[in-house]
Each structure stands twice: as structure tokens, then as C-alpha cells.
Amino acid sequence: MALAIECTICMECFDPSKIDKVACGSSVDHMVCFKCEGDWRDKMPLKHGIRRMTCPTCRQEELYLYRTTESLQREVRRTLRKTYESLKREPSSTEAAQIAEEMAQAAQIARDIRCREHAASSAAHPISMV
């Protein structure tokens, strides 16, 4: 039986396959469950189209997040779900601009997923958040 790991945000225990490690440079691993990771990412501000990520535990700027193929696919689904919900009704010009930005983000995530084709396995692959 695998050891359960506690999410540093919601404090619930998860199987190691359902949690991501934040690479903030801390000497202690800060682990975040998939749901908290998605909520946390959505709250980070965009600067020139790039999210400046900080660790939700220590607030240090995140160097990168170990991303698995599954983690990237979850982010694509989450982004597309939001876009789909927005398209169910007629968007305002501001919403249309936001949808275009979200679609660009989804395209970048899809490119990141294709990056795994160059790796030997679908193991964790650090992606720069610069």
C-alpha cells in the first residue's frame, strides 16, 4: 500500500499519484493536490501572458512545477471547460478577449503535452515557468 501524502493547502491525504510537488527551492517538499493546484493556478495573475507562480505554502516564486502528462491534460480540460461554459452564452467584448487568451493558454498547454513525445517515459518532466 502506498503512503498517503498530505496536501499543504487543504490538508487532506492523497495517494502520491494524485498530488504534485511544487519546486519553490524550499528544503522541504511542498505537495499540492490536483484540485488545490488548479484553484491556486487560476488565482495567479497573468503578466505578459505568463502566470507568475508562487508556492502556495511559502510564497516563494516557483522555479517550476513537476508536471506529468496527466497534470497537463487536467489543465487543458479545465481551461476548455471554462471556455465552453463561456461560449454557452453570447460573450461581451471583454469576455471574448479573455476567451481568446484562454484558448492561447490551452494551445501552449497542448504544446507542452506534445513535449512528452521527446521524453523516454511519462514520468515527471520539469517545465520552466519563467
Automatic annotation (TrEMBL):
Residues 7-59 form the RING-type domain. InterPro entries: Znf_RING, Znf_RING/FYVE/PHD. This is RING-type domain-containing protein.
